[in-house]
Write a structure and sequence with these properties.
The structure holds two protein chains of two kinds. By secondary structure, chain A is mainly alpha-helical. Chain A has 14 helices and three strands. The chains are: A mainly alpha, B alpha+beta.
Chain lengths: 365, 633
């Protein structure tokens, strides 16, 4: 037994919850700024509805014991992967991608939910792997668990969303106890796969990567977004041009600024201070969540928190790098801030799971 | 147990290291942003100032509106609009001062437009004044260096070629209201001109087409440097109306100094050949932007020029209703057409005296003669025999009490009273005496002019009611592909041809036989049938007003005609407010329309003021006050 069992002391972590709420409030504010006067007007209130849905999902996640969810994680995983298979064959194509399921006027991306399911199964895998060293068999299972949904989403084809599964794999390796030579092997494999994968990429995907490596090659074509977002971010300066006063934002320059490029809008209108605010809130959220992982009562809880946090962290880093041309534009939204119903709702679900691990830290089994 | 503890410590250590790594990674990102935003901030700021890529709307040319023969009713002409670029203005108040003084604009209006424009992002130009003349354009252009915040754009302006002709059928354009923008889910934006009322409103989507977009590189003054790419606009469809301009003009001329409405319609298809509501307004006048005083003048005019009297005003049908009652009673076998009633000029029902319009009485009248001379006593008796609910049934079968389904907004339903209506809606019981009033088209029964036209069409077509419409066909301006209106009908009361012939014969006699109430309006060469109606104006309000305006005490005049009697191609329903007797005030227009349609004579000279081929700006701006009846124009 580790620690003392104090019945009835359940604690809701207000740092994690507070940061998440603050970030999503910022999101509403800047979605409004980015869409006012455009044909997207009104998305801010729609986002608010989705946040409410997400908070509902978060409360539901809190009510369930995560250990129960871990126990059934394989079934959940299968249930979440089924719609992905379905979409691959029968999905409606929206913006060249078959990744949406429609409910009346709302659409949902089931892949978002399968991210959570995959994280659950990864945590379950390591709950029972108590060895300090990562076994080959565990590595194989981990690769299969993460690889399958990644492949399904990649085939939709939504490269951005597919990439967000990858951190689950690395969370497994890192905290599962991968030895040094393992890392070397992984590195080599990644290089080979990337090289070979180049031939399988769609043209527009290649173009994006090419643009990333040389952004000035195609200023009005696929380099357009990178260039425009860099101008938007850079021209924001220290204190920004003021809320709703971004000249580059306001949808005239960035085609998807209320979704993927929301940070560029913040950077332009609130400047470097705004960026620090956003990154600071994320830092507080992640560092706190990892602290919670350390105090979780079992291995499953530790890995669940790490997996979910790892995914979010990865998205933040890639998205923030994208804005200033440090990463290719892959269509990864900024968690909690970008417009996107499925993304915000599932992120709050993830927050709920993280809080749940802390919440049940001392509870009786 | 020990191994697990050991492993947990390792795990904790790894998490601790990872936390440091996460913190470091985010700090690195912050440094990268610092580099872009602060170290290189000035560079990007100048880029944002000097090399902006903007999406510019390419407005789709709005479709033309033509009459059924291809005569252009509405087209587009170039118009010059003055825009204010807020970003370029150093001193906004000074800029407003400058332009108000230069062009003599209404300061209050300019200020309020700037205020409204401030809700949009800063670099979205604010429209300040439309329809500048060439001299004004030159004045602004000459000062462009000192005032780069003002720019002039050329756009297409709607031109209603015949001024106020068919204004109520055509509708007008005006800037989309905030509610319309909200309700359009992103289709309309601030400053978009959209169709309001009439066919401009009803077929807005069709006429407007789809706007395109150009992505252009502009410098800091908003000047276009290069075009990146463009999405072509899809032009709006041209719309052919069922209106016949020739007939329309005859009707317009007739109503020049009268208040009322006329509908001419093809009874076989429901195609509206002419539609006039008077007083009218000039739709051009909205396109040239209404000042608030002009607007007040227009809406405070007691005759309400904006209202379409043919579909929005409800009146008692008066004696015109008798033919529908006669038809209904015949069709249901409730009256013997040869049975005669003796009219002494008055009759008593339920202890009350009801007078016939002819003081001395009509003597013996049968159904045909009752229609011809419009004998009230005959119809009092018929109405009493039928009872209100049967009358209401007949009226409903002729489409009264419900919208006709015409392609115009704000259509009124009218009112068909019944016992149930009295009980439920009015909250009092139905008095038998009211039935007597309703049987000659008075009492609570209310109809619109268009309803009467449709009902008359239904009557002469043996019960089949066509849906009135103005849409004749649409034409794609690029491919020439046409889309025709598919005529719709509603089946009403069926009748045998023999019985129908009696009603039509009675209506023929109204116009063509001595003693008929519209005998004076015989048309040479075309046999016209019809029915007059006169609605007494005895409202208390009117009596009070009488001291000021005697004409307001005059009766309203109706005439509902059709022709040629053997094979009708047109029904004409004329309503003249305070016109006096239907025969004198309303029937002559029907006669004129038939004469015009069949080219018999030119009874009225072509109205000279309707031709505006002189070009942009030449059309006189008519102040709304001048639309008021009685004032000299």
């Amino acid at each position: 037994m580790i620690g003392r069992v104090i019945p009835g002391t359940r604690r809701l972590d207000l740092v994690v919850l507070g940061c998440a709420l603050a970030l999503s409030a910022l999101g509403i504010l800047f979605i409004d700024s980015a869409t006012t006067g455009t044909r997207y007007e009104g998305l801010a209130s729609r986002q608010a509805i989705w946040i409410a849905v997400g908070l509902g999902a978060m409360i539901v996640a809190l009510l369930f014991d995560y250990r129960m969810l871990l126990k059934f994680s394989f079934a959940i995983y299968c249930a979440c992967l089924l719609p992905l298979v379905y979409l691959l064959f029968f999905g409606e194509t929206i913006a060249n991608v078959r990744s949406w399921i429609r409910f009346g006027q709302f659409q949902f991306q089931p892949a978002e939910l399968s991210k959570i399911a995959t994280a659950l199964l990864v945590a379950y895998l390591f709950e029972n792997e108590e060895d300090a060293r990562l076994h080959a068999s565990t590595l194989l299972k981990l690769s299969a668990i993460v690889g399958l949904p990644t492949l399904l989403v990649f085939l939709q084809p939504d490269m951005g969303l597919a990439i967000t599964f990858v951190p689950l794999f690395f969370v497994g390796l890192l905290f599962g106890g991968m030895p040094a030579r393992g890392w070397v092997a992984i590195f080599l494999i990644v290089v080979v796969v990337l090289g070979a994968g180049w031939f399988f990429l769609k043209d527009y995907q290649k173009q994006r990567i090419g643009t990333f490596l040389n952004p000035d090659s195609d200023v009005l074509g696929s380099g357009y977004q990178v260039r425009q977002s860099k101008i938007a971010v850079g021209s924001g300066g220290f204190a920004g041009k003021g809320f709703r006063s971004g000249t580059q934002s306001q949808l005239r320059f960035l085609p998807v600024q209320h979704t993927d490029f929301i940070l560029a809008v913040i950077a332009e209108e609130w400047g470097f201070l705004g960026v620090i605010l956003v990154l600071g809130l994320f830092a507080a959220l992640f560092l706190r969540a990892m602290k919670l992982a350390q105090t979780a009562r079992d291995r499953g809880g530790v890995f669940l928190v790490l997996a979910l946090t790892g995914m979010m962290f990865f998205s933040v880093v890639i998205n923030a790098s994208m804005m200033i041309g440090l990463a290719p534009t892959t269509g990864i939204p900024l968690p909690l801030v970008s417009y996107g119903g499925s993304s915000i709702a599932t992120t709050f679900l993830a927050i709920g799971l993280i809080l749940g691990v802390e919440y049940r830290r001392f509870a009786n089994a | 147990m020990l191994r697990i503890r050991e492993d947990r410590q390792r795990l904790m250590r790894r998490i601790e290291v990872s936390r440091v790594a996460v913190g470091a990674m985010l700090s690195l990102l912050a440094i990268a942003y610092w580099f872009v935003q602060i170290a290189r901030g000035d560079y990007y700021f100048s880029l944002s100032e000097n090399n902006r890529i903007r999406a510019v709307k390419v407005t789709a040319p709005r479709g033309y509106v033509l009459d059924r023969n291809g005569a252009v009713l509405v087209e587009n002409e170039p118009a010059y609009t003055l825009h204010l670029y807020r970003r370029e203005a150093r001193d906004l108040a000074g800029s407003i001062d400058f332009i108000v003084n230069l062009l003599g604009l209404d300061r209050e209006q300019v200020a309020s437009r700037v205020e409204r424009g401030k809700r949009a992002p800063e670099f979205v130009p604010i429209p300040i004044a439309e329809n500048l003349g060439i001299e004004e354009v030159a004045m602004v252009e000459a000062r462009a260096i000192d005032h780069p915040e003002f720019a002039i754009t050329v756009s297409q302006r709607r031109l209603y070629k015949h001024g106020g002709a068919a204004a109520h059928a055509l509708g007008y354009l005006s800037e989309a209201t905030p509610e319309q923008i909200k309700g359009s889910s992103g289709v309309y934006q601030v400053g978009d001109w959209i169709g309001q009322k009439g066919i401009e409103g009803a077929y807005q989507r069709l006429l407007a087409g789809a706007n395109g977009e150009r992505r252009v590189i502009v410098d800091s003054h908003g000047r276009e440097v290069a075009e990146a790419n463009r999405l072509e606009a899809t032009p709006g469809q041209n719309l052919f109306l069922t209106i016949d301009l020739k007939l329309q003009k005859v009707a317009e001329e007739y109503f020049r100094d009268r208040v009322g409405a006329v509908v001419a319609m093809d009874p076989r298809t429901g195609e509206i050949l002419a539609l006039v509501s008077s007083p009218s307004y000039d739709p051009n006048w909205f396109t040239r932007r209404v000042t608030s005083s002009e607007w007040t003048g227009l809406i405070e005019n007691p005759d309400r020029p904006l209202q379409n009297r043919a579909v929005q005003n409800m009146y008692s049908p008066g004696s015109v209703f008798k033919v529908f009652l006669a038809y209904g009673a015949l069709a249901q076998g409730l009256v013997d057409p040869s049975a005669r009633v003796f009219c002494t000029g008055h009759a008593a029902f339920y202890g009350r005296e009801f007078r016939c319009h002819k003081k001395g009485g009509h003597g013996w009248v049968d159904l045909r003669r009752a229609i011809q001379v419009s004998c009230d006593v005959y119809f009092y008796n018929l109405g009493r025999q039928l009872g209100i609910d049967r009358i209401s049934e007949i009226a409903t079968a002729f489409g009264f009490g419900q919208p006709t389904g015409v392609d115009l907004a704000f259509e009124k339903s009218g009112l068909v009273p019944s016992e149930e209506w009295a009980r439920v809606k009015r909250g009092s019981r139905w008095y038998p005496g009211e039935t007597i009033s309703v049987s000659i088209g008075q009492g609570p029964l209310l109809v619109t002019g268009l309803q009467v036209a449709r009902a008359l069409a239904g009557l002469i077509e043996g019960g089949r009611l066509p849906t009135p419409h103005l849409f004749y066909s649409s034409q794609d301006p690029r491919t020439g592909e046409q889309l025709r209106y598919k005529t719709e009908f509603r089946e009403g009361l069926a009748i045998s041809p023999e019985k129908l012939a009696i009603v039509k014969d009675g209506m023929w006699a109204v116009v063509n036989e001595a003693g008929g109430t519209a005998f004076g309006s015989r048309v040479q060469g075309v046999e016209m049938g019809g029915k007059t109606g006169t609605v007494q104006v005895v409202g208390r309000e009117t009596t009070i007003k009488a001291g000021a305006d005697r004409s307001r005490l005059q009766d309203h005049a109706w005439f509902a005609g059709f022709g040629p009697v053997s094979d009708p191609t047109m029904v004409v329903v004329v309503f003249v407010e305070h016109g006096g007797h239907g025969n004198l005030a309303a029937a002559p227009l029907a006669k004129a329309l038939f004469e015009a349609k069949y080219g018999i004579a030119a009874p009225l000279p072509p109205p000279p003021s309707l031709s505006t081929d002189a070009g942009a700006g030449a059309t006189p701006r008519i102040a709304p006050a001048a639309l008021r009846r009685g004032e000299p124009r």
